[in-house]
Amino acid sequence: MARIYFHLVSKHETILDTVGLEITDLDEAHAEARKAIEEFENESPSPGAEWDGWRLDVSNHSGAVMFSIPLGHLSC
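and the corresponding C-alpha cells:
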C-alpha cells in the first residue's frame, strides 16, 4: 500500500490534500482520481467555468506528481 494525495492546482493557487488516501496500485489511483472529478462535476452547476485553468495533481508521499488531470474540460 502507498499513500497518495490529490492537490488542486492553478496558475495562482494550490489547494493541498494533507490527508491523502491509501491505495494498492496506480490503477486504483486513477480510479480514485476519476471519483474525485465526478464529485467536482456533481457539486458545481457550471464546472467547466469554475475549474477552467485548474488541474488535479496526484502525488506520492514524497511529493512527486504521479499524474495530472486538467479540470477545465468538465463541462465538455
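(Above: one complete record from the training split.) The longest strand covers residues 2-9.
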